[in-house]
Design goal:
Helix content is 55%, strand content 10%. It contains 21 helices and 9 strands. It has a 5-stranded parallel beta sheet, with helices on both faces. Strands 1-2-3-4 form a 4-stranded mixed beta sheet.
C-alpha cells in the first residue's frame, strides 16, 4: 500500500520509465511505531548503483511524503531475509533535512564547469575521515554557494545528529558573542566548541570585525586539532581577501578551496522549467528563454518567478505576454541593490502589512511590537549596526530597548520554527539582488 502511494507521488516529478528502473525493484515497508522505513534491494550491486544515482532523490521525496521524524534502513536481499526481515544495518539514515528539503545535491543543477566543486562537496559531506579541512566554497553572488553549504549540512545530518552541526552566517557568529553571551568570549567559544561540524556562510563579511577574526583563529584551531569538519563559503576568491588576518587567511588555505562558476544558459533554463513545473506557472518556451537570457543571478531569477507566481494567483489566470513584460520591466526598474535600514524597514513593513511609520513609532500593539523587534533584529544581523545607531533609526529609542528586542527575537527563533522561517524569508527578500535605476 505504501509503495503504491509513494509511486504515485513520485510520478508527479519522475517519468514512468525511470521509476521502473530505480523504484519498482525496491521492497518498501513502513514501521510506523518506530518511524522507520525499511528498504530492501534485490542485490548488493543494485544497492551500490542506487546509492550513487538515486538515493538523494528518493530520500528527499520520502521526506516530503512522510514528513519529519523518519529514518530509512537500507538492506539488500541476502542479508535482509524473508519478507524484508533480518539483521539491521549499523545505523539508519535520517531524512529530516534540517537545513531545508530543497537544499540537496540532487536539486543542485550542475554542468561540467561546476562538476568538481559539487563532487568535492559531496565527498566532504559523506567521508568517514576528515581529509579536506577546511573546505572553502568561493563564488560570486547567486552561483549557489548557500545551497551547496546547506546540502552539505543536510547530507551530514543523515548520519549525525543535527544538533552537532553549527550552520550560520558571520552575523550569526557575531550574535553568539555579542547577544547570546553578552560579549563573554569564553562562554561563546565553549558553545561553538561543543559542535562537531562548523558551517559558516558569507565569510567575507568578517572584514568589518577584527575582534571576530581573532576569535575565528581560536575556533579554527580547536576544530582542526580535534579533526572536526569546517566548511566556509565566501564571495570571490579567497586569495583576494587582503583584509583577512594573515594567520586566519593562512589557515583557511590549509584545506581544499573550490570555485563555483555562475550558472550558464542551459542551467538557468532547467531551473526556470523546474520552478514553473513546481508552481504550475504556464510560460511559453520564448518567455522561459527570455528569462534565462536576461537574468543570470539565481536569486534575482527566483525573485522574478515569485512575482510571476504571485501575479498569477492574484489574477486567477495564466500570465499573458503583456503581463509578462509588465512584470519584467517593473522588476528591472526597481531601486539599486544597496542594503540599508530603509530597505529593511520597507520590506518588513510590507511583509507584516503595515506602515514603516508603525515600525518607527511607539505602539505597543502585539503585532506591531513584534514586527518592530523583527526589523531591529534584521538590521543588526544584516547591517551590523550598533544598538545606539539602531535606537536613533527607530525613533530615538534607548539602546537597551534595541538590545532587548534583538535578544528576544534571537531566543525566539531557536524554539519557534515559524519565527525561524519568517526571519529566513525576510533575509532572502532583503538580500535579493535588485535592478539599477
Amino acid at each position: 500500500m505504501l509503495k503504491e502511494k509513494l509511486r504515485q507521488f513520485f510520478l508527479a516529478t519522475c517519468p514512468e520509465q525511470e521509476l521502473k528502473r530505480w523504484f519498482d525493484p525496491l521492497s518498501i515497508r513502513l514501521l510506523d511505531e518506530e518511524k522507520r522505513v525499511n528498504v530492501v534491494f534485490p542485490h548488493s550491486f543494485f544497492s551500490q548503483w542506487f546509492a550513487s544515482s538515486n538515493q538523494d532523490r528518493f530520500e528527499e521525496g520520502l521526506h516530503r511524503f512522510l514528513g519529519n521524524g523518519f529514518t530509512v534502513q537500507y538492506k539488500h536481499g541476502p542479508e535482509a531475509g524473508p519478507n524484508g526481515h533480518g539483521p539491521a544495518a549499523p545505523k539508519a539514515t535520517n531524512i529530516d533535512f534540517p537545513f531545508g528539503p530543497q537544499f540537496t545535491f540532487e536539486n543542485f543543477l550542475v554542468n561540467k564547469k561546476n562538476y568538481f566543486p559539487v563532487a568535492s562537496a559531496r565527498e566532504v559531506s559523506k567521508q568517514r575521515e576528515i581529509v579536506f579541512n577546511p573546505f572553502v566554497i568561493c563564488g560570486q553572488g547567486g552561483c549557489g554557494k548557500t545551497h551547496l553549504l546547506k546540502a552539505v549540512g543536510n547530507e551530514i545530518s543523515k548520519k549525525q545528529a543535527s544538533r552537532q552541526i553549527f550552520f550560520g552566517s558571520v552575523e550569526d557568529v557575531e550574535s553568539i558573542y555579542e547577544t547570546r553571551f553578552a560579549n563573554d568570549p569564553f562562554k561563546a567559544r565553549d558553545y561553538l566548541y561543543s559542535f562537531d561540524f562548523l558551517l559558516v556562510d558569507d565569510f567575507q563579511r568578517i572584514r568589518r570585525n577584527g575582534t571576530l577574526q581573532q576569535e575565528m583563529i581560536l575556533i579554527f584551531n580547536h576544530f582542526y586539532d580535534n579533526k572536526k569538519q569546517m566548511v566556509f563559503s565566501c564571495a570571490d576568491k579567497l586569495a583576494s581577501y587582503d583584509f583577512l588576518d594573515p594567520t586566519l587567511k593562512s589557515r583557511l588555505e590549509w584545506g581544499l578551496i573550490v570555485n563555483l562558476k555562475q550558472p550558464d544558459l542551459d542551467i538557468r533554463l532547467h531551473f526556470i522549467q523546474g520552478q514553473c513545473k513546481n508552481k504550475k506557472i504556464a510560460l511559453s518556451k520564448e518567455q522561459i528563454l527570455s528569462l534565462a537570457q536576461r537574468f543570470q543571478d539565481f536569486r534575482y531569477l527566483q525573485g522574478i518567478l515569485i512575482k510571476i507566481f504571485a501575479f498569477k494567483e492574484l489574477l486567477k489566470r495564466d500570465i499573458d505576454e503583456r503581463d509578462f513584460e509588465h512584470i519584467l520591466n517593473n522588476t528591472e526598474d526597481r531601486g539599486a541593490g544597496t542594503l540599508s535600514t530603509e530597505l529593511i524597514l520597507s520590506i518588513t513593513a510590507n511583509y507584516y502589512k503595515m506602515r514603516v511609520d508603525d515600525l518607527m513609532g511607539n505602539s505597543r500593539k502585539q503585532n506591531i511590537a513584534l514586527a518592530r523587534q523583527v526589523s531591529m533584529f534584521l538590521c543588526r544581523q544584516l547591517l551590523g549596526a550598533s544598538f545606539p545607531a539602531l535606537g536613533r533609526v527607530f525613533g530615538g529609542k534607548d539602546h537597551s530597548t534595541v538590545l532587548y528586542s534583538v535578544r528576544k527575537i534571537d531566543e525566539l527563533q531557536k524554539d519557534d520554527k515559524d519565527m525561524k522561517r519568517v526571519l529566513q524569508e525576510l533575509k532572502d527578500l532583503c538580500l535579493l539582488p535588485r535592478g539599477n535605476d
